[in-house]
Amino acid sequence: MPLLRRARPDDLADLLELTREFNAVDGHDHDDARVAHALGPLLEGDEHGQVWLIEKAVGIGEAVEIEEAEGAPAAAGAGPLGYAVVCWGYSLESGGREALIDEFYVRDRGRGVGSAAMHELLDACRAAGALGVFLETEAPNESARRFYRRHGFQDEPSIWMSRGL
């Protein structure tokens, strides 16, 4: 099972590598400077949210090895197994603090790493006082929606809208 560890400022290089992989998998543009700027406040404190690294779990006195899957990125097994970014919101409808899972990426998929990490992440959100958790996925990404549904997330009838400022 993986272990979530709060990311620190000295984890920035690993996080940038992971965000590059995540954006490549999802087909999004990536800008190291923009991502590093956005990660800064999250790595320095808890006011806006939290960043977590997914690492190999440590059992009682021994490391639990997770075999690399064929076709996994070359870096799998050589560093963090993935990462998660949670940002805080506040809502009258929810009655207080909400968590937005802004990014959730696991290098080695289909082996239970993501499920164990999601379980720990939801516990961390609860411990931070969040009353609900939201996330969004790309419309054509049915496998991601199946994963999230297995972890208790539901499709919402509301439509998210956005615009730049």
UniProtKB/TrEMBL annotation:
Signal sequence coordinates: none
Origin: domain of life: Bacteria
InterPro entries linked: Acyl_CoA_acyltransferase, GNAT_dom
Domain N-acetyltransferase: 2-165
GO molecular function: acyltransferase activity, transferring groups other than amino-acyl groups
Gene3D superfamilies listed in its UniProt record: 3.40.630.30
Positions in coiled-coil regions: none
A Pfam family recorded for this sequence: Acetyltransf_1
Name of the protein: N-acetyltransferase
Organism listed in the record: Frankia nepalensis
